[in-house]
UniProtKB/TrEMBL annotation, chain A:
Annotated Gene3D superfamilies: Aldolase class I (3.20.20.70)
One of the protein's GO biological processes: glutamate biosynthetic process
Region Disordered, residue ranges: 111-134
Keyword Methyltransferase annotated: no
Name of protein: FMN-binding glutamate synthase family protein
UniProtKB/TrEMBL annotation, chain B:
GO MF assignments: oxidoreductase activity
Stored PANTHER family: TUNGSTEN FORMYLMETHANOFURAN DEHYDROGENASE, SUBUNIT C (FWDC) (PTHR39673), TUNGSTEN-CONTAINING FORMYLMETHANOFURAN DEHYDROGENASE 2 SUBUNIT C (PTHR39673:SF5)
Highest taxon in the source lineage: Bacteria
Name this polypeptide is given: Protein glxC
UniProt source species: Aestuariivirga litoralis
Amino acid sequence: MDTNVPRTPPRKSATFDDYTLAEIRRAASTGIYDIRGAGTKRKVPHFDDLLFLGASISRYPLEGYREKCGTDVVLGSRFAKKPLELKIPITIAGMSFGSLSAQAKEALGRGASAAGTSTTTGDGGMTPEERGQSRHLVYQYLPSRYGMNPDDLRKADAIEVVVGQGAKPGGGGMLLGQKISDRVAQMRCLPKGIDQRSACRHPDWTGPDDLEIKIHELREITSWEKPIYVKVGGTRPYYDVALAVKAGADVVVLDGMQGGTAATQDVFIEHVGLPTLACLRPAVKALQDLGMHRKVQLIISGGIRSGADVAKALALGADAVAIGTAALVALGDNDPIHEEEYRKLGTTAGAYDDWHEGRDPAGITTQDPVLAARLDPVKAGRRLSNYLKVMTLEAQTVARACGKSHLHNLEPEDLCALTVEAAAMAQVPLAGTSWIPGRGGY
Amino acid sequence: MHELDLKALGVTAINQKLYHIPKDTNERHWVIRNPMGQHAIACGVDAPLLIDIMGHVGFYCGGMNKEAEITIHGHAGVGVAENMMSGIVWVKGNASESAGATANGGLLVIEGDASSRCGISMKGVDIVVGGSVGHMSAFMAQRGNLVVCGDAGEALGDSIYEARLYVKGRADNLGSDCIEKEMREEHLEDLAKLLDRAKMKHRPQDFRRYGSARKLYNFNVDHADAY
């Protein structure tokens, strides 16, 4: 063999890349699809693809630190006698006790309350720890109705009828047996240690006409006091939002595909649903077409990480945002301080997503009492509170730079897009042009 | 006995009246006239009241009931006694879909037939149906007892957990992981009590018992065809 002849170097397939090959081998070995937590990991158009223009000669900025920039929001003003009045437009999304430890739920309540916002239960009922530490608690009403009872319904400050979520629109819940402790099993009326599947449809209503009647029942039982939210995954946002409004929702929660989950098939997370950015403008248009924008509030969620994301979401027409994954990170999820233990689990800090296995070194996505005890709810709650306040300050900084005295005064005109895709989805001009894809002209 | 005219007062006023009856009063018996098929009548009651509803009702009558004994002198719409916690809801006629859905406790009696998804995701309630039940009844049923004195529709007990199903008539088509089980002495005793509470004149020995094979409790690829 002539070693002087140049050889073609090994070339790996772009289609069958290393990750794909490993997944095929894993599937062949185990016979089960990959289940994991968190939201989509693929890169999709997002708020990073938008920029604020700021002020100059044609727009006056507000003085940072001196001129007021309001952040408060009222949720549920359409029908509820007692709407939620929050200090900041950043809420904590629904995450269940069961998927999270009791300590983590308590920390979420503490952090949210300290920052003046709401937190939300999840598919598993309301825990005393969470209710006790949450100034504003939204009670999720899910297809499984695990832990559902009228007493907790009446203790809640708002009710969120969950139709779907961004990580798995059209799919039900899943909590594998490893996390079904005695307490979780008792709350869900099921045996310990079995895989708990939650239905994808509600057991006693189907479609928007029925939903209207269901909302009526919930209002009756809570004496028309509580705001009723309807949460949908990002699929057909224009129609889903319109139907939720028609059904009588006070608030619509719209969750894009970057929204997290405690445990779902990877194929579902990565291949079903719309990116958050693509959901927002159709949803706002539905509200505008019905004359209900700012009357029925819109909460957007799925990959919200910073004050910039908050400001962009509000500029595009949302009334508030919800965070889930980011809140867990603030508590301590995926912290490199646990790197040694992450490596023993075959992963690394920043990539740990086996939340369904219940072996979380940070004590957050677990029911193991030893691991859960690692999370100090007071300290973790303080971290979350700090993070929420930073996000709010960031959003205010951007808003003042755009000359806005309230976060809700931000508008699409304050934005431009870095990519054609983002311009089309957000319906704002491509940077440096006046061109909005789909609207013609240049 | 006190009467409430729904036609004159509306659902909300009647429910509010029922919610605010003092715990220590002896005004326990309430009759609701002219229900007109309205929805959410007497839902969310949280007191040991006797409530007679004189006619047909719409969706969610007696929903989330606690302690009250509610009798519907007519037919019931979707989700009667849904998520009931305790007490009794008694339907003199037939019931529509999802009767007793997700109910945690108490007794639901339907003297006539019940439509599809009767007892769906039930979590501890006892349901006795004098007639037949429709398809997908006791889907994902977690706890409690469903007694069917007539026939059961397709896919009875699909993905059932620990609930017990008793059927006197035909149950030809069972759902995934639902199997016929041995009727032991304790089951005959339990069934006799249920029939007695529901004032149904049947012999427990004429029923068959169904429940979970428990093969789907933890994922096994060799059982994937059942999903």
